[in-house]
Write a structure and sequence with these properties.
- By secondary structure, this protein is of the alpha/beta class.
- The protein contains eight helices and 19 strands.
- α4 crosses α8 and α6 packs parallel to α7.
- It is globular and about 85 Å long.
Length: 390
């Protein structure tokens, strides 16, 4: 790793010289609008926290940026539109905020150049980003007619974004990928639990460089309104998927959701948490956690429930605030707010309305701000201990 280098290619009748070439860690950054959203934000109201400060200080020559231009195709393409650019205020303002903050932390922590390839499209489902070969185990997905006219293709059609925006870069030398998507699949949460690792396995097969790491963001709480499934089921599917295959991991952002904006402003938090996963799991850095608390065990003792958690060896915290996101239900499946108290590395909870508890739910709503963290400040995902349909 290092540079800048000059590469000269000579032939009998010509010489080509490439200047300002870096060698470093390259990551593919993909998904829907929360990955696509640029540092400058989107008018009129979608903003990025610390936007002006970040852009003004973004003269980082060791970070290089590549935006794959939007395109759909019914057949796999071998080329795409885009250019490598040196990171500067004039180039980073329209680059993915999540990807930039991720790459910035990697560059600072590793001390080596970082290349970021942003290939994302707002509002898209996960199915367009998977190749035809990737659907062999997902027979519920209807693949497009290969004879369909290009102008009739939708960016929501399965395979078409893989064909046009992933296949052209498949095989490029990368360390791994980050992913931020799921909002558009929230009503198909059971299928998503399988499609999320399916996408990673598909990309790994197409790159053919082994089980490269993929880290993704759990969707943030947001008020989707009365229509459709509770998005907590999709968050649950993402949490379950995180342990389905090797070199996989999920960044939780339960603490930064916005009730009326599906694009949280705290993209630095998002990018940093993805970087914690990469630094710890891919680069072997130690001394910090990379994941928030995950429920380990539930014990029912009379009217009380006691929970223990993984990923919280030093304890839990609510930063001095009352825990308000826990609910309890008995066998009748009616949930009531629970009184919850941190007891070392666990939680004790009860409700005067539930004499014989059967299930615990934490932050299991469309919009809610999580209030449970490990003491290093990483939040717990929403979770439940039942498998009830609602």
């Amino acid at each position: 790793a290092g540079g800048p280098f000059t590469i000269t290619v000579e032939a009998p009748d010509t010489t080509i010289t490439l200047d300002n070439v870096l060698v470093g860690e390259v990551w593919v950054c993909s998904g829907q609008s929360n990955m696509e959203m640029p540092l400058a934000g989107w008018p009129p109201n979608d903003t990025i926290m610390y936007s002006a400060e970040t852009i003004a200080s973004a003269s980082v020559s060791e970070i290089r940026l590549f935006n794959v231009q939007r395109k759909v195709s019914a057949e796999p393409l071998t080329g795409c539109s885009g250019n490598w650019e040196v990171c500067s205020p004039s180039t980073v303002d329209q680059f993915s905020a999540t990807a930039y903050f991720f790459g910035l932390m990697l560059n600072k922590s590793l001390g080596i150049p970082v290349g970021l390839i942003n290939t994302s499209w707002g509002g898209t489902r996960i199915e367009p980003w998977i190749s035809e070969a990737g659907f062999k185990n997902f027979d519920w997905v209807k693949l497009p007619d290969k004879n369909i006219q290009q102008e009739k293709l939708s960016p929501q059609t399965p395979t078409v974004l893989y064909n046009a925006m992933i296949n052209p870069i498949a095989g490029y030398g990368i360390r791994g990928a980050i992913w931020y998507q799921g909002e558009s699949n929230r009503n198909e949460y059971r299928e998503y639990e399988k499609l999320m690792p399916g996408l990673a396995l598909n990309w790994r097969a197409m790159w053919n460089i082994g089980d490269f790491p993929m880290y993704y963001v759990q969707i943030a709480p947001f008020d989707y309104g009365p229509v459709g499934a509770n998005s907590a089921f999709l968050r649950e599917a993402q949490l379950k998927a995180s342990t389905a295959i090797p070199n996989f991991g999920m960044a939780c952002i339960m603490d930064i959701g916005e009730k009326d904006c599906i694009h949280p402003a705290g993209k630095k938090i998002t990018g940093d948490r993805l970087a914690y996963l990469a630094l710890a799991k891919t680069y072997g850095k130690k001394g910090f956690p990379c994941e928030g608390p995950v429920i380990d065990e539930m014990k029912i003792e009379g009217s009380q429930v006691k929970l223990t958690f993984k990923n919280a060896p030093n304890g839990l915290t609510s930063f001095g605030k009352e825990l308000t996101c826990f609910e309890l239900a008995g066998a009748n499946k009616r949930f009531y707010p629970a009184q919850a108290f941190i007891t070392g590395t666990g939680i004790t909870l009860f409700s005067p309305f539930v004499g014989e508890p059967a299930s615990v739910r934490y932050a299991f709503k469309d919009f809610i701000i999580g209030d449970l963290f490990n003491i290093e400040g990483l939040p717990a995902s929403s979770f439940r201990t039942d498998d009830w349909d609602q």
